[in-house]
Design a protein that fits this description.
Structural class: alpha+beta
Number of helices: 8
Strand order of the largest sheet: 1-2-3-4-5-7-6
CATH topology: Aminopeptidase
Pfam families: Acetyltransf_1
Strand content: 15-25%
Distance between the termini: 27 Å
Keywords: Transferase
Protein name: GNAT family N-acetyltransferase
Number of strands: 7
Oligomer: single chain
CATH architecture: 3-Layer(aba) Sandwich
Radius of gyration: 16 Å
Helix content: 40-55%
Number of domains: 1
Domain N-acetyltransferase: 4-202
CATH superfamily: Gcn5-related N-acetyltransferase (GNAT)
InterPro entries: Acyl_CoA_acyltransferase (IPR016181), GNAT_dom (IPR000182), NAT_camello-type (IPR050769)
């Protein structure tokens, strides 16, 4: 049986598990290549931030998936840098030493706060991950349903997310199946084509 729960700020023991699951599920992703310490710092930021959070899915007490989200995404990274500047600087330096080409992408990631500003209040689904061994059990949809349930659509206009537009058909279809509508497509400075989706509530 799948159990879905919103983590409390004191549930810091999950951070290691979440970060390791991210690395297993997304071995080739940019954030994964920044290393385990970077991921632990990032996800701890979601847990600590008053306007953000993490939802977890467990099967028999074992982590099977998670969502990281923020109700103030335009301020999230700036706040994270203020609280964890030394850790991020150290992690980023190690990553750039290993992969010098990462420097430009890191700068872009930390400018995300400015890019995420929108006129209306919204919730950003920043990261969703399901253990590859637990795929096919509807865990991703259950995690999204929980995020929908805890989102007050009288306050927030929609849930927002971004994903790759190319060679990513299954993921794009998954979001549309879960009620998300394509808001726009755009190309990043790294020439990566992205789709932005929104869920407006029922």
């Amino acid at each position: 049986m799948v159990s879905i729960n919103v983590l409390d700020k004191t549930d810091t023991d999950y951070i290691q598990k979440i970060s390791k699951l991210h690395m297993v599920a997304f071995p080739d992703f940019f954030l994964t290549q920044l290393g385990l310490l970077f991921l632990k710092t990032l996800y701890k930021g979601y847990l600590e931030d008053d306007n953000s959070g993490i939802i977890v899915a467990e099967i028999n007490g074992k982590l099977a998936g998670f969502i990281a989200y923020s109700n103030e995404y335009s301020k999230f990274y700036k706040g994270l840098l203020k609280r964890r500047l030394i850790q991020f600087a150290f992690c980023s330096l190690l990553a750039v030493i290993r992969h010098p080409s990462f420097f430009k992408r890191l700068l872009g990631a930390f400018r995300k706060s400015d890019d995420a500003k929108k006129e209306e209040p919204y919730v950003e689904l920043a990261s969703i991950c399901v253990n590859p061994k637990a795929e096919g059990r509807g865990i991703g949809s259950q995690l999204i349903d929980k995020l929908k349930d805890i989102t007050d659509f009288a306050i927030y206009s929609y849930i927002n997310l971004e994903t790759d537009a190319c060679d990513n058909d299954a993921v794009n279809k998954f979001y549309m199946k879960n009620g998300f509508k394509l808001a726009r497509s755009y190309v990043t400075p790294e020439e990566r084509k992205m789709n932005e989706y929104r869920y407006y509530g029922e």
